[in-house]
Design a protein that fits this description.
Blueprint: E1 2-15, E2 21-22, E3 25-26, E4 32-34, H1 41-53, H2 59-62, H3 75-88, E5 92-101, H4 111-122, E6 129-134, H5 140-143, E7 147-158
Parallel strand pairs: 5-6
Antiparallel strand pairs: 1-4, 1-7, 2-3, 5-7
Helix pairs in contact: 1-3
The structure holds the ligand Nc1ccn([C@@H]2O[C@H](COP(=O)(O)O)[C@@H](O)[C@H]2O)c(=O)n1 and 2C-methyl-D-erythritol 2,4-cyclodiphosphate.
Residues 102, 106-108, 133-135 line the site of ligand L45E5XJ5.
Pfam family, one: YgbB
Pathway: Isoprenoid biosynthesis; isopentenyl diphosphate biosynthesis via DXP pathway; isopentenyl diphosphate from 1-deoxy-D-xylulose 5-phosphate: step 4/6
Site (Transition state stabilizer): 36, 135
Length: 159
C-alpha cells in the first residue's frame, strides 16, 4: 500500500461587498472573501493538500486566476475536479484534517454542514473529514479581520 501525506495553505482578503463562502457554504457576515473564484479559502487549502500529496503541483497550476473560466467559480467544482485528478493516478482519500483561522464570525455551528457538503463531493465518510476553527487572539492580519487563512493535511492511499 502506498501512503502519501499532503499539506495545503491558503489566505484570502476579507472586504465589504463580497459573499463569505467557507467550506462550500455561504456564511452570513458583513465581510466576504475576495478572490478570482468565490474565495473559499478552506476548499482551496484542501485542494492544495490533495494535489500536494499526489505530487500534482497546486490549485493555481490547474485552475489559473488568469483564466476567465474560473472567474467567480464555485470552489466546490474545483474540489470535484481535484478529486478526479488524483483518482486518475489511482489515489483515494484516507482522511483530511483542516483548520480555519478567522477572528470573526464564529463558525463552529456551520462546521457540521461544511463536513456534510465536502465529504459528499470527496466521496468520503464525514468522520474522515475534520474541520476546526481558531481565532488568532486578535493578532496579525487574521486578528485585525483583514483576512482569513486555512491549513489542511490529507492522507492519500493507493492500493
Ligand atoms: N472564527 C472562529 C474561531 C473559533 N471558533 C471556535 O471557538 C473556539 C475558541 O477559539 P479560540 O481561537 O478562542 O481558541 C474554538 O474551539 C473554535 O471552535 C469558531 O467557531 N469560529
Ligand atoms: C482558485 C483560483 C482560480 O479561480 O483563484 P482565487 O480565488 O484567487 O484563489 P487562490 O487561492 O489564489 O487559488 C488559485 C486560483 O487560481
Amino acid at each position: 500500500m502506498n501512503l502519501r501525506i499532503g499539506q495545503g495553505y491558503d489566505v484570502h482578503k476579507l472586504a465589504a461587498g463580497y459573499e463569505f463562502w467557507l467550506g462550500g457554504i455561504l456564511i452570513p457576515y458583513e465581510l466576504g472573501s475576495v478572490g478570482h473564484s468565490d474565495g473559499d479559502v478552506l476548499i482551496h487549502a484542501i485542494c492544495d493538500a490533495i494535489l500536494g500529496a499526489a505530487c500534482l503541483r497546486d490549485i493555481g497550476y490547474h485552475f489559473p486566476d488568469t483564466d476567465n473560466a474560473y472567474k467567480n467559480i464555485d470552489s466546490k467544482i474545483l474540489l470535484q475536479d481535484t478529486l478526479e485528478l488524483i483518482k486518475k493516478e489511482g489515489y483515494y482519500i484516507n482522511n483530511i484534517d483542516a483548520t480555519v483561522c478567522l477572528q470573526k464570525p464564529k463558525v463552529k455551528d456551520y462546521i457540521p454542514k461544511m463536513r456534510d457538503v465536502l465529504a459528499e463531493i470527496l466521496e468520503i465518510d464525514k468522520n474522515t473529514l475534520s474541520i476546526k476553527a481558531t481565532t488568532t487572539e486578535q493578532l496579525g492580519f487574521v486578528g485585525r479581520r483583514e483576512g482569513v487563512e486555512a491549513h489542511a493535511v490529507v492522507l492519500l492511499i493507493k492500493e
